[in-house]
Design a protein that fits this description.
This protein has 384 residues and is an alpha/beta fold. The protein folds into 2 domains: 6-82, Fe-S cluster assembly (FSCA) (GMP Synthetase, Chain A, domain 3), CATH 3.30.300; 112-369, P-loop containing nucleotide triphosphate hydrolases (Rossmann fold), CATH 3.40.50. The chain is 33% helix and 21% strand. Bound molecules: adenosine-5'-diphosphate (ADP). Adenosine-5'-diphosphate (ADP) is lined by residues 118, 121-127, 152, 154, 291-292, 331, 333-334, 337-338, 341, 356. Residues 118, 121-127, 152, 154, 291-292, 331, 333-334, 337-338, 341, 356 line the site of adenosine-5'-diphosphate.
Length: 384
């Protein structure tokens, strides 16, 4: 019979992944005393905070990991909590040595930041953003999504992050670091996570904040949320060219901007304006997405409820000699896109063969094809 060693159990336990921090617990310094005698393993771990929501899952996984070591017949688990000093050391490590309050997505960051904007509301910007995030995650990219549409936050609902009372789970906090809930592989943060509502009622304290408060909220989302080393950060911007657009422009001047519009010519003008404002803050308009384009009916005819051509017009109008702007995709009208969104299961997951899901998947491919990091980003140098 195999005699298990302390080290073998330590290795197995240490490899357990913390479901919120998404790193092995050994790396997070959560493993404590471990010993084995006559097949009985005694395993000590510490959680980051008291009442850690992931406690049950971590405990079960640790037990299973220890029990999986050949020769272990019994596991006694001892669960403690990190001391404030241990927690501070951990949050420092998670911030990658960056001081608290410093925004990790500044100009030196390798994360691509894509702000999705539109001229007016109701064009499907949030629906497209949520699905795009999931499609990028399904391509293997590590993706974060900030719901900066503070007046009309809909991202949690679109990604199924809502309980029966309409509440959105609050992020777990480790001191001043917030761990974003993960939905369909996407790390999500939304103002909706900080508002509570009683059953069936409108959210308490719906967001009628003024500029400075909005600025602070977005800044806090970017600074205090632990996204880790992500490839892409998507921001679902509020429609129009208000305070948030300007704040994000200041906080993330190197962000790329994706403009969503409908095919309707009347929608084009306001969409163009949102692109122009983004550019004034130094951001680059990376492309235009036309949503609610013509759908093909079962008899094969094309049904263009909102007309045609709006996306191409916006792309053309925003193009300059130095910075051509392309129409990156047209997403057709789709019942599944709407009903899956209402049900909290993105269409790219629920009906990946739906024409709208396919169009969003292609859009994700096009965006993912651009290199990660600084390559392709214009340098802040100007010829004399
Ligand atoms: P926005 O973020 O621009 O305000 P939403 O994403 O909230 O817009 O979408 C507005 C409504 O339109 C939602 O009910 C959504 O399900 C629906 N919708 C969005 N895109 C489409 C589409 N391509 N086909 C059908 N319905 C759509």
């Amino acid at each position: 019979m195999t005699t298990p060693t302390d080290d073998a159990v330590r290795r197995a336990v240490g490899a357990v992944i913390d479901p919120e921090l998404r790193r092995p617990i050994a790396e997070l310094d959560m493993v404590r005393d471990i010993s084995v005698a006559n097949g009985a393993a005694s395993v000590g771990i510490v959680l980051t905070i008291v009442g850690c929501p992931a406690a049950d899952r971590i405990s079960a996984d640790v037990r299973a990991a220890a029990a999986s070591v050949p020769g272990v017949t019994d596991v006694a688990l001892h669960v403690g909590v990190m001391s404030p000093a241990e927690r501070r050391a951990l949050t420092e490590r998670l911030r990658g040595g960056r001081p608290a309050r410093e925004m990790p997505f500044g100009p030196g960051s390798l994360t691509r930041v894509i702000a999705v904007t539109s001229g007016k509301g109701g064009v499907g910007k949030s629906t497209v953003t949520a699905n795009l995030a999931v499609a990028l995650a399904r391509r293997g990219l590590s993706v974060g999504l900030v719901d900066a549409d503070v007046h009309g936050f809909s991202i949690p609902g679109l990604l199924g992050l809502v309980d029966a009372d309409g509440n959105v789970p609050q992020p777990t906090r480790i001191d001043d670091l917030m761990l974003p809930p993960v939905a369909y592989g996407v790390k999500v943060i939304s103002i909706g996570m900080f508002l509570r509502r009683a059953h069936g009622e409108a959210p308490v304290g719906a967001v009628a904040w003024r500029g400075p408060m909005l600025h602070r909220t977005v800044q806090q989302f970017l600074t205090d949320v632990y996204f880790g080393d992500i490839d892409v950060l998507l921001l679902d911007m509020p429609p129009g060219t208000g305070d948030i657009a300007i704040s994000v422009g200041q906080l993330l001047p190197h962000a790329e901007v994706l403009v969503v519009t409908t095919p309707q010519p009347a929608a084009s003008d306001v969409a163009v304006r949102s692109g122009v404002v983004a550019r004034q803050t130094g951001q680059r308009v990376t492309g235009v997405v036309e949503n609610m384009s013509a759908m093909t009916l079962p008899d094969g005819t094309s049904f263009a409820l909102f007309g045609a051509g709006g996306g191409a017009v916006v792309a053309e109008t925003l193009s300059t000699d130095a910075e051509p702007v392309r129409l990156l995709g047209s997403i057709p009208l789709s019942t599944h896109l709407r009903t899956d969104g209402d049900a909290g299961t993105p269409v790219v997951v629920a009906h990946p063969d739906d024409p709208a899901a396919l169009a969003i998947t292609v859009l994700a491919e096009i965006l993912a094809a651009a290199p990660r990091g600084l390559a392709g980003r214009s340098l802040p140098l100007r010829p004399e």
